[in-house]
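Closing statement on the iron/sulfur cluster sub-project.
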Amino acid sequence: MLHHTPKEIHERKALRVNPAKTCQPIGALYAALGIHGCLPHSHGSQGCCAYHRSHLTRHYKEPVMASTSSFTEGAAVFGGGANLRQALKTIFHVYDPDVVAVHTTCLSETIGDDIPTIVKQAKKDGIVPEGKIVIHANTPSYVGSHVTGYANMCRMMVHYLAESTGERKNQINVLPGYVEPSDMREIKRLLAVMGVPAVLFPDTSDVLDRPQSGRFEMYPKGGVTVEALRSTGDSQKTLALGRFASEEAAKMLQTKAEVPYALLDLPIGLAATDRFVEALVELTGEEPPAAVSDERGRLLDMILDGQQYLYQKKVAVAGDPDHVIALTEFLVHMGMVPTHVITGTPGKSFELRVKGLLKEVNPQAKVKAASDLFELHQWLKNEPVDLLVANTYGKYIARAEDIPFVRFGFPILDRPGHIYFPVVGYTGGMRLVEKILTALLDRIDRDAPEEKFELVM
Ligand code: SF4
């Protein structure tokens, strides 16, 4: 399908071909699902909402709920205030959520709908029942990416819900970043094992990976509660995992409730997980329990066992910025050589950080934010690699160039099961090493002549 991608590269400024990102509301919708009893609401036309829901449903293999303001031509001309009022009436009457999290779309942003004023009036008019909550985030899709939308919704959770009573609680806040429900579950497990009471928000575990019960539940048992969100203003500290997805919310908590924050990478790989564990050790003053040290030791052992296949292998990586930064560091520590590294999300700090990580091992590496998969494909044609790590869309490039391929990040639309296995923490690192080694060894098997087709690797 991509066999006609040309090798010659022409500088492009405005045009994106085969983007390595999707639109802001998808991230905002995903974050909102991490609040217990919340119905995400898309303030725009039905088409946007249908696309956002289906994209998330295809990734999570779960029905993703969201309502829409259902704009038509009238709303485009006169504004969507009446549509939102009608939508809120229907939502509380029919679906009865505790929270409605409104995110905007390109159209409502272009019109300039003032959501707080519309909601304020709706409350005055009794459209929002007593005790029910409406929050909102501005998510114009012509800037940023789904990661920006996620970060915006997290920030607005703090804006609307965090409260400070003046009394500090024995707990910290953890912003897990735009990661899978299984990753959030793994971060919570590590916090529990390390003995650190924490509010993790948002939390999509037991929402988008809930067990099959045979019954449809509009609001599954998972998600951070409103009460817990309110208490974030009384926490001792916030750990923001991933600059792009989490720092904005942490900053707002610091400004609003004087909760200091520390910015860490997503705990993907050995060193990044070490830093996360060290941050927890600093809080408790206690050494990590043996169970955690053993997990680390197993990951290290696995990397050493696979060293002859990993060492000096060239890798191309595409994905969301926080994921790609942490993975690049992990690949370097495994002895591999990241050669082309892109994200679709804009941000110069991404380029600076990744170039810093590659300074010693590959200063010539091509690194770019706000890039696209077409550009990555062109780079690969000019300088081939041994492995491509990307979301599902990468498989077309892998096929065209015959490169071993590992699916990583969002979205993964063509394989089931990925949402149940974390990539964070030492155990998540082991899964990544296994996936990378399997892809490389499968290629060796595929290409081996009869006499070199080995039983034992
Ligand atoms: S119009 Fe904007 S918000 Fe709607 S699907 Fe397209 S990019 Fe996303």
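The CA atoms of residues 314 and 385 lie 5 Å apart. With this model delivered, the sub-project is considered complete and its resources will be redirected to Aim 3.
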